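Q: Got a minute? One more chain.
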Amino acid sequence: MSGAARVLDLLALRGHTLAVAESLTGGLVAAELTGVPGASKSFRGSVTAYATPLKERLLGVDGTLLADRGAVDPEVALQMAAGVRARLGADWGIATTGVAGPDPQDGQPVGTVYVAVAGPLNGPAGAGRVAALRLNGDRAEIRRESVRSVLELLGELLADEHSENARAQDTEQNGGD
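A: Always. Here it is, folded:
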């Protein structure tokens, strides 16, 4: 099962929805998700904010943060995920930002990527999670690995949440605490 299919299955189990904010991946995450039959049950939509000013305008990323650190930054990734989650009315938001090449950007070398997840406030990603990646390969490989990594991060958080919920239900059913 692909990462996208796994994520969509886990979201559907909870009746949760997902929104995606993309920069360096340019829509590849959304394409991967919508390639799975039945994706519309959970996938709300995406924003491809390739240009830095759009990250502020469309996703609500702090303009001072962008001016000070540039778009390739862990906090920017987290704000992108939280922003797309809020703006598209989803339970979960994921984001990708980084440098696929051929040239460095914002003082960051090619292969520097940040992927982020923002989820329900009471879940394991309520405050958000960011993964810093240092990827090798050509532009296409870096973008492909970024897609895989953001879906894997979300899948891990959804699986953790599923395990926590199952343990809580088991405890309730058995009268334990």
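A: Residues 139-173 form the longest helix (35 residues).
Q: Perfect, thanks.
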